[in-house]
Design goal:
By secondary structure, the protein is α/β, with parallel strands linked by helices. The chain is about 35% helix and about 25% strand. It folds into two domains: about 150 residues, P-loop containing nucleotide triphosphate hydrolases (Rossmann fold, 3-Layer(aba) Sandwich), CATH 3.40.50; about 60 residues, no CATH class. The protein is built from nine helices and nine strands. It binds adenosine-5'-triphosphate. The site of adenosine-5'-triphosphate has 11 residues, from helix 1. Adenosine-5'-triphosphate binds next to helix 1. This is ABC transporter ATP-binding protein.
Length: about 240
């Protein structure tokens, strides 16, 4: 479970997230939505210990990321911009992460297989397509067979087959009682994958609840999103 409480982070005195609170529950996929600059990546970075909050807490299984004993075994993450070394082979990228987290080598081959990358595992990452890189990032997130998955725009660059793979993977993950937090700009895709939705705008939570409750009265998640965010982006950017 993920519990975010009154989370606040300021950059140069300006809040990027301002008292954000929500829960992502076990056995459910939680979609994390918001316009550009709304504070999604900042929230995820704070959750994953890549930045320190000015106020509030972001807990994974009741602990802050930096207090986790085996972080990769507890939470697997795919974040924008955290790419592999281009000259490294796909299999070596995963093997290096596995080794540094005491994850058995056989798990590398399991996740390569899961991600449909077994045939290209020996190729250097610089020769990978965008979709193959994305699959490698998701494979890395799965390495520790974690209780919690946190994915920032996981279907970015994936073809329809890849998108369906991610959807089924996340649904299966949640069905096994684990927790998935999924940030996305794609409303239809989120509506087809998520059980619960958190909408953030201007650094604050605009709505949080089951997908059908959020969409109720709007016809679609997309219409609900526009009604809730009203074109708001970064704080002050109405
Ligand atoms: N390191 C930083 N230094 C200064 N400002 C930052 C920093 N990181 C984020 N911000 C600002 O905080 C606000 C929220 O940004 P954030 O990247 O969290 O939004 P986002 O919802 O992930 O947007 P997008 O959908 O475009 O990825 C923006 O105004 C952004 O400019």
């Amino acid at each position: 479970m993920i519990e975010v409480t009154r989370l606040t982070k300021r950059y140069g005195g300006k809040p990027a997230v301002d008292g954000v609170g929500f829960t992502a529950r076990q056995g459910r996929v939680t979609g994390f939505l918001g316009p550009n600059g709304a504070g999604k990546s900042t929230t995820l970075r704070l959750l994953l210990g890549l930045d320190r909050p000015d106020d509030g807490t972001a807990l994974i299984g009741g602990r802050r990321y930096r207090d986790l004993r085996h972080p990769l075994r507890t939470v697997g993450a795919l974040l924008d911009g955290a790419g592999p070394v281009p000259g490294r082979r796909g299999v070596d990228h995963l093997a290096w992460i596995a080794q540094s987290n005491r994850i058995p080598r056989r798990r590398v081959h399991e996740v390569l297989d899961l991600a449909g990358l077994s045939d290209v595992a020996g190729r250097r990452v610089k020769g990978y397509s965008l979709g193959m890189r994305q699959r490698l990032g998701i494979a890395a997130a799965l390495l520790g067979d974690p209780e919690v998955l946190v994915l920032d725009e996981p279907v970015n660059g994936l073809d329809p087959d890849g998108i369906r793979w991610v959807r089924n993977l996340l649904r299966g993950y949640a069905a096994s009682g684990r927790t998935v937090l999924l940030s996305s700009h794609l409303m239809a895709e989120t509506a087809g994958t998520a059980d619960d939705v958190v909408v953030i705008a201007g650094g604050r939570v605009a709505a949080h609840g089951p997908l059908d409750e959020i969409s109720a009265g709007h016809g679609s998640l997309e219409s609900a999103f526009f009604a809730l965010t009203g074109g708001r982006g970064a704080l002050g950017g109405w």
